[in-house]
Amino acid sequence: MKIPRSLLLLAPLVASTGCAEYFTVDEACHPKGSVIGGKSLDPNELSAMNQMNCYRRLAGILRSSVSPQTQDAAEGHLQYILSNPDLDRVLGADGTLEYLSQSFDEKDYSGSNVFERLDKAGYTFLDPQGSSVDEYLIFDWSLDGTPPPSGAEAIEAMMRDHNLRQAILQPSWIDGAYAEIELSSSWFGKGEACKFGVFQCVLGGTPSPELVGRAYYLMIIHNNPHIEHVDRPLVYPKYDQLDVPLWSASQDISNIDLTGIPTPIKVSYPLTILAGVLDESNARLSDQNMFGLSVDAVIVDGNDNALETKVVLPGSEPDRVWLGGRLLRTAASVFTRKPLEPNSDYTLVADVSTTEATFQIDVPFHTAANDPGLDDDLPANTTAVARHDSREVEAYLKDHPHMIAPQAR
Fold first, then answer.
1. CA of 401: how far to CAs of 2, 78, 147, 333, 397, in Å?
2. CA end-to-end span of the chain, whole Å?
3. Helix 114-121 / helix 68-83 crossing angle, nearest 10 deg
């Protein structure tokens, strides 16, 4: 049974009525935490999910939630990765995409794909015809012995990545999971990693003991198309936000070093425009840019100066110093060439259109007085996304009806 979209649209509207408005991340954080199902999380995972909900409350969307079943599936998948180290799956042509599936004959196998892992954990879908499942897998590593961020700090880092911000601010969140696991230097010694020139390797092809890493797995089950915040694009930073960070990481693909790696650089903190549609017939599920999102006439004004900007749309290719949008689907990102100035006023102005409507946005915001990491070396990481839209979910559940919740049959 598919729940009528007109009824689903009422839930976020009712839930948001009378909510307080916030202007900083800390202000938006619930003093006691706010993760539905948080008892199934360990302290680092709970810290991360709480921080995620700080951003969601600040942006004006409903909080995220987890269940014991989704969390069990997520943690089982990271245990599989820990037990089967292979850097060829991290640094190969498909990035970490290979690690989003499992091989039956390997240790700690918990399901070849996300549906099998959810099935094994006992998960059932409440909206079998209108749900999508998104998976985000991130590997992060350091060559100087400094552990990659964990818990709330990991979410802070992910919010600087325009692809991962789309996940953290995903509207119409139904269920999900967040898990992370530490990777030792010995884990990085498997595969052919030293050939890539990424890792500091000693004689014999063994990574330096200073190499430490972490893997993160984020799963989101959400309405597709989403039903929350569809009357107008969601813009982040939000209107009159007071604590906007200054920078994010990028690469200069026109400046390649001897190992074939682009020179890391810093650009501005991403400015995100996330769209939706009121009429689901206006969503093009087979297209990466599923809402036909475009952003034109962009101005980022700072200190009465219009700054050099770049708009990154879903599916767009990297361009010189600008990141591509290969992992975006419902959001566009706006960057300025240089990091933002501290303790300064800015305004984002743009014309935004979708398959359904046209909007004008005019969003002022204020930057933080300082931003840790502005002068530090950039972290190294790689990210992969697998999206299973509502058509794939519905097809799988047709053959596995026991995964449909009784009240939805």
1. 14, 27, 43, 39, 5
2. 6
3. 120
pLDDT at 192: 53
**Residue corresponding to tokens 């004689």:** 203
What pLDDT, on the 0 to 100 scale, is given for residue 31?
Answer: 79
Give the pLDDT score at 199: 52
| CA 310 to the chain's CA centroid | 20
The predicted pLDDT at position 374 comes to 78
- Along the chain (409 residues), what's the average pLDDT of each consecutive run of 10 residues? 45 50 94 82 94 96 94 97 86 73 96 97 94 94 86 95 95 96 82 50 57 92 91 96 95 73 87 95 92 96 87 92 90 95 96 96 96 75 87 95 91
Per the CB < 8 A criterion, the answer to whether 262 and 255 are in contact is: yes
Token pair for residue 17? 């009525």
CB atoms within 10 A of CB 46: 19
In degrees, rounded to 5, the angle at the alpha carbon of residue 228 between the alpha carbons of residues 22 and 115 is 115
pLDDT at position 341, please? Answer: 95
Is the peptide bond preceding residue 43 cis, with omega within 30 degrees of 0?
no
In angstroms, the CA 137 to CA 219 distance is: 9
Alpha helix stretches (DSSP H) within 169-274: none
Query: Which pLDDT belongs to residue 18?
Result: 47
Quickly list DSSP for 316-331. Answer: PPPBTTB---TT-SSE
Residues 118 and 403 sit within 8 Å (Cβ to Cβ): yes
Q: Which two tokens stand for residue 189?
A: 């010694």
CA distances (Å), origin 348, targets 55, 167, 272, 352, 391: 19, 22, 10, 12, 36
3-state secondary structure of 97: helix
Determine the pLDDT at residue 16: 45
Token pair in block for residue 93: 């042509």
Give the separation between CA 316 and CA 330, rounded to whole angstroms.
Answer: 13
Give the DSSP H/E element, type plus range, for residue 114. Answer: helix 114-121
- Find all residues with CB under 8 Å of 90, minimum gap 6, and list them: 96, 99, 139, 191, 193, 382
C-alpha distances in angstroms, 45 versus 37, 48, 82, 135, 253?
A: 12, 5, 17, 16, 35
Query: Nearest to residue 178, comparing CAs of 203, 206, 157, 150?
Result: 150
The kind and range of the H/E element at 78 are helix 68-83
User: Which DSSP symbol is given to 289?
Assistant: S
Q: Cα separation of 407 and 70, whole Å?
A: 19
- Ordered by where they begin, the domains of the chain are 5-229+381-408 (no CATH), 234-376 (2.60.40.3780)
